[in-house]
Amino acid sequence: MIHEKIFQLKSGREVKVVVKSYFLHDNPQRDMDCEILIREPKEKYFRAPIGVNHPQYWKMKRSSAQQAKVILMEYSGITQRHVNQAISEFNRILSYPPTHIGLQYESELV
After folding, report:
1. I need a surface site. Which of 17, 24, 57, 70 has the fewest CB within 10 A?
2. What is the DSSP letter of 98?
3. CA nearest neighbour of 33 among 67, 74, 71, 69
4. What whole-number distance in Å separates Cα of residue 70 and Cα of residue 60?
5. 65 closest CA partner among 99, 33, 97
6. What is residue 99's DSSP assignment?
7. What sign does the CA torsion over 35, 10, 52, 66 have?
8. What percent of the chain has pLDDT over 90?
9. CA 14/CA 24 separation, integer angstroms
């Protein structure tokens, strides 16, 4: 399942937090992943905040996964509170009964 939340910053930049969760076949736990994308006021599409040509790219690649996430959040302009808000909305949606979110055949998919 995928949940997207867009935050409008004071600078006009929009930041999209994409929360993805996968059910593992042999494990009742879910694997959760967060992705951060940005869009400047004059841009048409969302993009990764730090691309290959960005000065922070290699610093981010050399760092640990947790440090890379912090660098990405700092550059995009959002805080951990924004990411936590998107994750809590996602978990709230997952807690609804399947008929309320249109997953009538959830047992067949899992």
Report:
1. 24
2. G
3. 69
4. 9
5. 33
6. G
7. negative
8. 31
9. 32
Token pair recorded at residue 63: 């760092």
Give the ranges where the chain is alpha helix by DSSP (H): 57-62, 65-76, 80-94, 106-109
Kindly state the tokens that stand for 95: 């807690």
CA distance 35 to 83: 10
pTM for the model: 0.75
CA–CA separation, 84 and 80 (whole Å):
6
Give me the count of residues in the chain: 110
Instruction: Give 99 or 11, the one with higher predicted confidence.
Output: 11
Edge to edge, the sheet with strand 2-8 lists: 2-8, 14-23, 30-39
